[in-house]
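Exercise: predict the fold of this chain.
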Amino acid sequence: MPSFDAIARTFESATRTISLAGRTVLPVDTNPVPAEWEHITKIDPEEAKKLPLLFPLYLQHTGALEVGGSKDVTGQNTEETLELVSGRPRPAIQEPSGVRQVTERTREQADYFAVPQVLNGDTEAIVGTLGSGIEYLREELGPEYLDDKLPIPLGEGLERRVVSLFSAWTLQEAVFEAYIIMNLDSAAAREASVTEDDLLSPQEAKQRAMVAETVFESEIVYLEYSGTFGGEEAVEILEDVSDALSWSRLWYGGGLDSRENVEAVLEAGADAVVVGNVFHEIADEEADLCADAVEALSADATHGDIESWLSDECDVAETSAAEYLSTIPSLSNPTARAREYLVSTIEAALALEALRSELDGEVTSEAELATALDRRDELPGGIELSNVLGDDEQSFPRDLVAGLLAEDLDLDAEALPVEHISVA
């Protein structure tokens, strides 16, 4: 009679064989990263990187939200960013650049957990960082999780095995992003110690990608130019890498702010584009626009008044709003949509300012603010946001307005982390 160990080994071998068949032979797609994600929005938790006031309007057009960055990212600001964006209105991926950015709360908030691997960096970038991450899961996050969830101690031996299971399960549930970093003048390159000697030719990139798919089983191969468009060089690499991959998704990120560049990398073989900087630039621009609008327009300005004022103030086609929306292949008229969203944002900002002035000195507590908001039939931005959010997120417009007003009126209140929103 076979031993329990032998049965377990046979079962694991059979499971492994089925998994390999699903990836290579069978006409099924077993990659957990959805194939329909053609556009990903990268959201940086760094304090300086703000979100547009009515950010769900823009994010309704993307496939998923990837939360992470290479500079000034902490567990706290990652939690805050995920609290704002997760599920509003798209699934969120946490992509940590450091182990302590992963907390029990971020694991609950994010729909996906992505582990970066740098294929052309130093040993620390692909092995050391992952090793320190496993150590953190086993020695800190895992025990803290058990202490929080279990009513009684398990005992040292059993607890160690359960923590090992927790760590293995966390990594098993994760998706791995195998990066090829090609812009030396970027935080990502500095973090991974990518030098001139580490830049890859198309053939070398193809070979690294094959290792990522076959040996590392990376769900994503990510060609990263980080803030700079890779142009013809990126197209050549994507063409070679795309031909070599059969299971891993191929993503491109870097300098995407036009329909032309997006179409070039998708035609070269990328499964999805990742757009980041220009999304945060929307927030920077709208903060200035809204401040000017509050000075120039009255609180009862009509929709037409605001459209006319906006046309005088800027060329909408040249705004970051239009540039971001132009990177979404399914959107036919990004400039018209940008104008619509900017006008809605200015309307909301004017209404917020009027409401703040009305309540200033009248409310002194969170309870009084809640009562004042409950009396109103319509809140700033409420209709626009409610139209793009799911049924389980219909409280978000009110929570956002309450958070912004509590911050502005200096009230002690439990609120959303509105310091990450561009318009205060």
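Check your answer against the key: The CA atoms of residues 112 and 222 lie 16 Å apart.
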